[in-house]
Amino acid sequence: MSDTWLVVGLGNPGPKYAGNRHNVGRMVIDTLARRAGSTLTTHKARAHVADVRLGVLPGGAPGPRAVLAVPGTFMNLSGGPVSALLRFYDIPAERLLVVHDELDLPPSTLRLKRGGGEGGHNGLRSISSSIGTRDYVRLRVGIGRPPGRMDAADFVLRDFATAERPELLVTLEEAADAVEDVLTLGLEKAQLRLHTA
């Protein structure tokens, strides 16, 4: 068994959905891949992946190996590709980190946790069901609640507004920092750094 991590960003495939709030997890993966000087390529597990090293360990050595991935399926079918990637790379579920959008957090708020419920998130529900456990790390990226009486399903499939873009770019970098912290410092120290910042 390796000390490799699988870092998955949730969203829907294709250009139609690329800028959606629901795709913020995929945007974080793109940010991490860019930092690592890599690009995602097609994998037989119905996903796009990049095999990289993330962050810098205390002492200056390169951070651990990470497989960055976005499922090639729609959000509610994310579990199949994630399960296949864990098997392919022989990575245990406790070294799975899933980045996803979160309606119950204010925009740009980030929270790290291990395990817990799915909170009505179909991507998480699919992953937990496919891998047989909820005991994996999640990085929740707040997108806020829909305005007025707008349906949540419509809201998450809307693009971020132009006025939101500058803050979004900062959030993506902060989320990438949080992922690197989990891999290089461990979850508890990463939580402490993120939640008390």
TrEMBL record:
Give the PROSITE patterns listed for this entry: PEPT_TRNA_HYDROL_1 (PS01195), PEPT_TRNA_HYDROL_2 (PS01196)
Q: Which UniProt keywords apply?
A: Cytoplasm, Hydrolase, RNA-binding, tRNA-binding
Which top EC class applies here?
hydrolase
Task: Give the positions of the site Stabilizes the basic form of H active site to accept a proton.
Answer: 101
For the site labelled Discriminates between blocked and unblocked aminoacyl-tRNA, the residues are: 12
Where is tRNA annotated to bind?
17, 74, 76, 122
Query: Which InterPro entries has this protein been placed in?
Result: Pept_tRNA_hydro, Pept_tRNA_hydro_CS, Pept_tRNA_hydro_sf
- Cellular localisation: Cytoplasm
Pfam families found in the cross-reference section: Pept_tRNA_hydro (PF01195)
User: Does the keyword Zinc feature in the UniProt annotation?
Assistant: no
* Active site positions, chain numbering: 22 (proton acceptor)
Q: Which reaction does it catalyse?
A: an N-acyl-L-alpha-aminoacyl-tRNA + H2O = an N-acyl-L-amino acid + a tRNA + H(+)
SUPFAM superfamilies assigned: Peptidyl-tRNA hydrolase-like (SSF53178)
Task: Enumerate the GO terms in the molecular function aspect.
Answer: peptidyl-tRNA hydrolase activity
Main subcellular location:
cytoplasm
Look up the EC number in the record and give it. 3.1.1.29
**So what family is this one in?**
Belongs to the PTH family.
Its subunit composition reads: Monomer.
Q: What does this protein do?
A: Hydrolyzes ribosome-free peptidyl-tRNAs (with 1 or more amino acids incorporated), which drop off the ribosome during protein synthesis, or as a result of ribosome stalling.
Name of this chain's protein: Peptidyl-tRNA hydrolase
> Which gene is this protein's source?
pth
